[in-house]
Design goal:
globular, Alpha-Beta Plaits, alpha+beta
Length: 82
């Protein structure tokens, strides 16, 4: 699994978060996507690596500014994560 953290500028409300989340879901087969207007970032969990340019394009198409994209391996942690 991979975790992508994308800096997204311009989100002002919960609808903004929903627009970004929906755009990512439509563009990729992701496990989970969440956006935070207060942190100005979107977090994406996916089983396969994503095309960073396509990820940027999907979010940019919603009208928000895309900044840094960080990618890291992700493992579910906790009692049932192994």
């Amino acid at each position: 699994m991979w975790k992508y953290t994308v800096q997204v500028g311009g989100m002002m409300c919960s609808m903004c978060e929903s627009h970004v989340n929906d755009a990512v879901r439509k563009a990729f087969p992701v496990k989970k996507v969440t956006s935070s207007r207060s942190k100005q970032e979107t977090t994406v969990l996916a089983e396969a690596e994503l095309d960073e340019a396509a990820l940027r394009a999907a979010i940019s198409a919603t009208g928000y500014e895309v900044g840094e994209v960080r990618k890291e391996p992700w493992e579910k942690k906790g009692l049932f994560g192994r």
